[in-house]
Design brief:
Layout lengths: L2 E7 L6 H14 L10 E7 L11 E11 L4 H18 L8 E11 L16
Helix pairs in contact: 1-2
């Protein structure tokens, strides 16, 4: 049930849908999530950003993975590492014209305060 948010600087020539697909597959491969469709991800291009003192030719990608509480620090680190590795592989890393920093973090959501519903679509008659 992770909620994945990929933020990236708009000066990066990347394909965010490709990155999300790679991250979703990597997260599912960790064995921490029951169904692939439980992983929900989105990407946001950051039009306004600064790296350091607004250095030129700089960019970043930050991956935030929110999971329900109860996993150990080691497991959360494995999830972060899997997401980061997937990003690095899916980006044409060596061909990028900018210096890019990649980061990934896993945040916990409290199960006791998390709520969701989903519908069951009616079959067409």
């Amino acid at each position: 049930m992770p909620q994945v948010t990929l933020e990236y600087t708009a000066n990066l020539p990347i394909q965010p849908a490709k990155l999300l697909t790679a991250v979703n597959a990597a997260l599912f491969a960790t064995g921490q999530f029951k169904l692939p469709q439980d992983i929900k991800s989105r990407a946001r291009a950051l039009e306004v950003f600064a790296v350091g003192d607004d250095l030129p030719n700089q960019a970043f990608v930050h991956l935030q993975i929110a999971v329900l509480d109860g996993r150990s620090i080691e497991v959360r680190r494995q999830i972060a590492d899997a997401g980061l590795a997937a990003l690095q592989q899916a980006m044409d890393w060596d061909a990028l014209p900018l210096q890019v920093q990649l980061g990934a973090e896993v945040k916990e959501m409290t199960l006791a305060t998390y709520a969701r519903v989903k519908n069951t679509p009616q079959a067409a008659a």
